[in-house]
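Memo to structure team: turn this sequence into structure tokens by end of day. - J.P.
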Amino acid sequence: MRAWLTSGDGVDALREEDVPAPSPGPTEVLARVQAVALNYRDLLVVRGEGSWAPPRPVVPVSDAAAVVEAVGGQVTRFRVGDVVLPTFLPKWRTGELTAATYVLPTGGPVNRGMLAELVVLDEQEAVLAPRTLDAVHACRSRASPPGTPSAGRGSPRGRRCSSTGPVGWR
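Reply from structure team:
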């Protein structure tokens, strides 16, 4: 399987590698990435800026749409064929953003990202994509916790992410 890795040394240094295909655990889904979208935070990781610099090579990019290919034995929320979106902050499900919920951002300097052919997601760290959108457009519909008006609001220091637009997987 192909994945792209960064050591935080710039866009031109992104490298494609063959890596072992992941397998889902009991509460996880295995999904094939159909589209990704880039945002400013992704560039901070790839450029290795400040606290976003990865301590080791990582797969970057937080926004994607992927089709479920396999489910773990305890998964109840998704079926094979569902289109899913990873959540940006997997531990933030509702309420105010706190230090306890602002951990392990998807595609961040220490958590797995979406710039790969196959990804594994815990079923609690993904949402169904809107059925009215294709994968390219769905990957830009931010997977915010329930009740939050936008994923940008309440982000650290009030910063908002701006998209460079959807990118189809080829």
